[in-house]
Design a protein that fits this description.
This protein is an alpha+beta fold. The chain has one domain. 38% of the residues lie in helices and 14% in strands. It contains four helices and four strands, in the order E-H-E-H-E-E-H-H. Strands 2-1-3-4 form a four-stranded mixed β-sheet, covered by helices on one side. A hairpin with a 2-residue loop joins strand 3 and strand 4. The longest helix is centred in the last third of the chain and has 19 residues. Pfam families: DCC1-like. InterPro entries: DCC1-like, DCC_oxidoreductase. It comes from Bacillus seohaeanensis.
Length: 130
């Protein structure tokens, strides 16, 4: 099975909670994860030509890169339950979707806090992290 990779900000509390949220709703383990700050994350950013300082979740799926609201909506498309329905928001113009995304991204540390170091996965989920 082909798996997709989600790159996330490893020190962001919102991002870490989002990873846990995705894992709970991804029973087929379609997604693997790497923090943007990790060696794997840095390597993948370089491979796909992403900026050093990226303020977005990144989805790498079938050698395509999705960022901001596109990444979030493509992730939702693979989650169990009603979350798949959020993909319909792709009908909204990207400047609206990404505008809202950027407001949250800019304020995520202030609103949700941040960690001193990246999250370490527990033994049961270690295979999901690169």
């Amino acid at each position: 099975m082909t798996r997709a990779i989600i790159l996330f900000d490893g020190i962001c509390n919102l991002c870490n909670h989002s990873v846990q949220f995705i894992i709970k709703r991804d029973p087929t383990a379609y997604f693997q994860f790497a923090s943007l700050q990790s060696d794997v994350g840095v390597s993948l950013r370089e491979t796909y030509g992403l900026p050093t300082r990226i303020d977005s979740v990144v989805l790498i799926e079938n050698n395509k890169v999705f960022v901001k609201s596109n990444a979030a909506l493509h992730i939702c498309k693979h989650l169990k339950g009603m979350w798949k329905l959020l993909f319909v928001l792709k009908l909204l113009p990207p400047f609206i979707r990404d505008g809202l995304y950027e407001v949250v991204a800019k304020n995520r540390y202030k609103w949700f806090g941040k960690r001193d170091q990246c999250m370490l996965p527990d033994q049961n989920r270690k295979d999901r992290f690169l």
